[in-house]
């Protein structure tokens, strides 16, 4: 079977969810949904043996062949690992949600449709080999995440969080699309594997760094890196299963996946190594530091997620160094790749279980506020155990899986210190120091999370609900995850062989031929190494800080609210909205005159500029015909009449002067041998003046409406500019005739072809009869319009009379 | 002669634009009238003013004025007449409804902002 179709299985299943929800009322809809990820999980397990041997399999579904766009699913170590995480944790989350969401009170059909949509999107991201389909799935995760965060859409905070995450991730997604387009232009292919194959031609290209930065923007916004992490804490308004699934285990790792996937292409760039490592470390520190400040259980976990994602990101950056170093030194940076993937797995496990316990606490006590909680250990022993295991793993203590990956992390950061490329020699010493400080804070917030919630005394204030242990079904998923967290500690090398090494081979394409070449052996006791000493330091300082928390927590009040990144985001949004509003109010005045000024000024300016820029202004005196005494006299009369129109004090004078202008134009037609025109002009001018006079009785008197001198002067300047422009255009156009007139043809054939003598009339009705037809139509329409306008008024008046 | 005509056209355009930019609707309509005169004369001038005989077939004449611009202007005159008549009625109706021809007062009301 083509496994590319399996990506769409959840989406197709989503179509049946509303049906099942509406028809089968007594079974929780989640049970039907549960089947889908389980089937997929079992299916993907089959591929493990294949990737362990370093093999890759692809499957193609053609979509738009003429544009070379198709769905290409590739299963290699990296995409298999992610697919298993998505479907595995997906199954557990669905199981958990069955007990978490009440089937009577919640709109379950919405929830599971969004969740299945999300599952398809994630599977699509990790398996796509085609950049355009990757982008498609990428945006689908943004949309489904938006829907899931806003699941309780009647709450303001939910809508705010959903919108914020949408704005930031879609911004990143669009940047990433730009990067993909540049890449496909440079590498002349849409396929990621082919692009990596063409790396040589891409690396030297001018757009290389730009594409790199754009793609990183996509990865950073999705994976909540500094300074784009701000959407993640607000996304905690989502139901807890969603937070556990999207905002800890899967979606936020899409950015990490992207970075890992493109490492073989971009690792050669200095910018990449610096940005990925630097931003990763900064995020790691920032997230861990601010997690201690939070009082909401889920907010602590959100900041801790941000921090852990930063950790993995910095490891991915360090792993890129492996492409620059040869020989025995290289092994240490290959460890970084291993550590990144290994920690990614561990994080998905323990963070998933922690979110689920936070959800259980919320569900059973009615609050997530850590200040109201305490002393739940004896009431909720199972939840406590799970939370304890998760937190200790997060803090990096043995015997939990987090310990192993954190040791590897410290090893990699220590190795960066000695790396002497790209100025690392100067700044390298900072890497292990920041990593160490961040680990101390990680230790503090992990303890803070678990002990402030479960240990200590019960608070005097009664909780919203009488606390009790959660039902078995709800505990099942977190217990499974916690078991894995402990289990991985004891069998790290089996996990490494099955999942991590094939993923590393995919991620560091070109460095290995077979997963077995990834020579990393993880052991809990690795000798008295510097990293072990660092861990001991972390425990000592962390414990000290945790015990004295109350004394130094005032530190967080130093940063004023208005200087935070959230305030920056808010003011950007407000500024964007009000700024644009003010801008459009500024130039859209609602006055026709303003818009006419824009148009006239633009016409005059652009025409004049182009005349001189293009050297088109030419006056050729020889092409002009001789002065004609009658013509000059008529011109004088016309100018006088125009002045009369301009300066007329009464409307009667103005109308008569306008008539004067019309009659002098008719005179011009006589002088320039245009008898038909003269005739028409005379008649029409007479009728026009008659019309004006007919309406005279109804028209207002001529008033200036208090036009000031400055107002008139402004009008005069623009009018003069337009007038001069027209004169210049007329002169140059006449001076440079490029081709002879086609009128010779009309003159020669008017009698032989059309049997007429009056050439103008023959043109009107014979050669160019269509013009005349539609000109008649114009007159007819104008006539109907005039009639309609007068009738319409009567009709409305009658109506309004009836209303009275 | 084309030189003089070009200047006349410029003056007509200038006067028309000046009137169109004013506050009184009546003056705006006067301006559109001048604008169409300017455009018609421009077409005529661009065709050349050198012809010595009207474009009607006659024995022994070879130097006819260019008939094509004349046909174009004829069409334009009729169309601009139709439009002018329509605008005039529109103006009349506007004035009857609003009792003003001050463009500043015809901004639409705040409800439509």
- What is the oligomer described by this structure? heterodimer
Strand pairing plus helix content of chain A: what structural class? Answer: mainly alpha
Please estimate the helix content of chain B: 55-70%
| First-residue to last-residue Cα separation of chain A | 76 Å
Helical stretch tally of chain A: 33
Number of strands of chain B: 0
Cα shape of chain A: elongated
Helix percentage of chain A: over 70%
Tally of structural domains of chain B: 1
The largest β sheet of chain B comes out as:
none
The secondary-structure element order of chain B is HHH
The most extensive interface between chains reads: A-B, 97 and 84 residues
Description:
The complex is a heterodimer of chains A (804) and B (113). By secondary structure, chain A is mostly helical. Chain A folds into four domains: 3-547, no CATH class; 558-588; 592-742, Four Helix Bundle (Hemerythrin (Met), subunit A), CATH 1.20.120; 743-804, no CATH class. Chain A is 71% helix and 2% strand. In chain A, strands 1-2 form a two-stranded antiparallel sheet. In chain A, strand 1 (57-64) and strand 2 form a beta hairpin. In chain A, helix 5 packs antiparallel against helix 6 (131-149), helix 15 (297-320) crosses helix 18 and helix 16 (330-365) crosses helix 22. The longest helix of chain A is centred in the middle third of the chain and has 36 residues, at 330-365. The mean pLDDT of chain A is 88. Chain B has one domain: Helix Hairpins. The model of chain B has no long low-confidence stretch (mean pLDDT 87). With 113 residues, chain B is mostly helical. The N and C termini of chain B lie far apart (52 Å). The chains are: A mainly alpha (804), B mainly alpha (113). At the A-B interface, helix 26, helix 27, helix 28, helix 29 and helix 30 of A face helix 1, helix 2 and helix 3 of B.
């Amino acid at each position: 079977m083509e496994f590319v179709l399996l990506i769409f299985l959840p989406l197709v299943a989503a179509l049946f969810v509303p049906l099942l929800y509406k028809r089968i009322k007594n079974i929780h809809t989640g049970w039907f949904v549960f089947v889908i990820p389980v089937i997929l999980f079992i299916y993907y397990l089959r591929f493990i043996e294949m990737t362990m041997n370093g093999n890759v399999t692809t499957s193609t579904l053609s979509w738009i062949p003429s544009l070379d766009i198709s769905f290409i699913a590739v299963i290699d170590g990296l995409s298999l690992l992610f697919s298993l995480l998505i479907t595995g944790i997906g199954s557990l989350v669905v199981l958990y949600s069955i007990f978490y969401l009440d089937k009577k009170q919640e709109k379950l059909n919405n929830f599971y449709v969004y969740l299945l949509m999300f599952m398809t999107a994630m599977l699509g991201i990790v398996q796509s080999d085609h950049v355009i389909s990757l982008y498609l799935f990428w945006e689908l995760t943004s949309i489904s995440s938006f829907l899931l965060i806003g699941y309780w859409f009647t709450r303001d905070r939910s809508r705010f969080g959903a919108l914020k995450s949408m704005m930031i991730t879609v911004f990143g997604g669009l940047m990433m699309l730009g990067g993909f387009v540049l890449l496909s232009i440079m590498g002349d292919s849409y396929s990621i594997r082919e692009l990596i194959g063409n790396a040589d031609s891409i690396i030297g290209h001018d757009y290389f760094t730009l594409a790199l930065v754009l793609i990183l923007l996509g990865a950073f916004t999705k994976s909540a890196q500094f300074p784009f992490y701000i959407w993640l804490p607000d996304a905690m308004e989502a139901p807890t299963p969603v937070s556990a699934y999207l905002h800890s285990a899967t979606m936020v790792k899409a950015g990490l996946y992207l970075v890992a996937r493109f490492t073989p292409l971009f690792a050669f760039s200095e910018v990449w190594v610096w940005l990925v490592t630097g931003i990763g470390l900064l995020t790691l520190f920032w997230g861990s530091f601010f997690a201690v400040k939070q009082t909401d259980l889920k907010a602590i976990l959100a900041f801790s997620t941000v921090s852990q994602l930063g950790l993995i990101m910095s490891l991915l950056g360090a792993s890129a160094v492996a492409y620059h170093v040869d020989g025995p030194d290289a092994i240490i940076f290959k460890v970084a790749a291993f550590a990144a993937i290994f920690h990614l797995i561990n994080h998905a496990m323990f963070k998933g279980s922690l979110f689920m316990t936070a959800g259980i606490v919320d569900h059973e006590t009615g609050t997530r506020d850590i200040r109201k909680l305490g002393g739940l250990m004896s009431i909720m022993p199972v939840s406590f155990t799970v939370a304890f295991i998760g937190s200790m793993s997060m803090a990096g203590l043995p015997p939990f899986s987090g310990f192993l990956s954190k040791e590897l992390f410290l090893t990699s950061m220590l190795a960066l210190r000695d790396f002497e490329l790209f100025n690392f020699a100067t700044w390298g010493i900072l890497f292990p120091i920041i990593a160490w400080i961040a680990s101390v804070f990680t230790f503090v917030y992990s303890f803070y999370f678990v002990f402030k919630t479960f240990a200590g005394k019960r608070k005097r204030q009664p909780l919203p609900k009488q606390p009790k242990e959660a039902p078995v079904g709800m505990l099942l998923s977190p217990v499974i995850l916690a078991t894995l967290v402990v289990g991985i500690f004891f069998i790290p090398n089996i996990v490494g062989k099955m999942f991590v090494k094939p993923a590393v081979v995919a991620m560091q394409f070109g460095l290995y031929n077979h997963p077995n070449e990834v020579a990393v052996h993880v052991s809990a006791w690795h000798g008295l190494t510097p990293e072990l000493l660092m861990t001991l330091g972390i425990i000592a300082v962390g414990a000290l800080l945790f015990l004295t928390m109350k004394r130094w927590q005032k530190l967080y009040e130093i940063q004023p609210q208005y200087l935070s990144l959230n305030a920056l985001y808010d003011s950007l949004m407000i500024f964007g909205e009000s700024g644009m509003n003010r801008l459009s109010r500024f130039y859209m005045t609602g006055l026709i005159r303003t818009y006419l000024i824009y148009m006239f000024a633009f016409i005059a300016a652009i025409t004049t500029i182009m005349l001189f820029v293009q050297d088109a202004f030419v006056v050729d005196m020889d092409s002009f015909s001789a002065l004609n005494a009658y013509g000059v006299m008529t011109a004088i009369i016309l100018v006088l009449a125009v002045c009369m129109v301009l300066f007329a004090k009464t409307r009667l004078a103005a109308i008569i002067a306008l008539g004067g202008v019309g009659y002098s134009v008719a005179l011009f037609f006589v002088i320039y041998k245009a008898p038909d025109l003269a005739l028409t002009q005379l008649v029409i001018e007479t009728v026009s003046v008659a019309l004006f006079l007919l309406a005279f009785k109804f028209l207002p008197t001529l008033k200036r409406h208090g036009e000031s001198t400055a107002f008139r002067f402004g009008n005069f300047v623009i009018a003069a500019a337009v007038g001069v422009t027209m004169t210049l255009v007329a002169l140059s156009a006449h001076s440079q005739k490029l081709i002879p007139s086609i009128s010779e043809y009309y003159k020669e054939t008017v009698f032989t072809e059309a049997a007429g003598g009056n050439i103008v009339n023959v043109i009107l009705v014979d050669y160019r009869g269509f013009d005349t037809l539609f000109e008649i139509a114009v007159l007819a329409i104008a006539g109907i319009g005039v009639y309609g306008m007068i009738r319409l008024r009567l009709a409305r008046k009658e109506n309004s009379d009836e209303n009275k | 002669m084309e030189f003089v005509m070009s200047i006349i056209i410029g003056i007509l355009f200038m006067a028309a634009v000046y009137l169109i930019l004013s506050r009184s609707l009546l003056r705006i309509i006067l301006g559109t009238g001048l604008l169409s005169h300017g455009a018609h004369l421009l077409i005529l001038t661009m065709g050349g003013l050198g012809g010595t005989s009207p474009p009607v077939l006659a024995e022994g004449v070879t130097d006819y004025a260019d008939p094509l611009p004349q046909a174009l202007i004829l069409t334009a005159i009729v169309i601009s007449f139709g439009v002018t008549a329509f605008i005039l009625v529109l103006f009349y109706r506007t004035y009857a409804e609003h009792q003003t021809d001050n463009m500043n007062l015809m901004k639409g009301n705040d409800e439509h902002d």
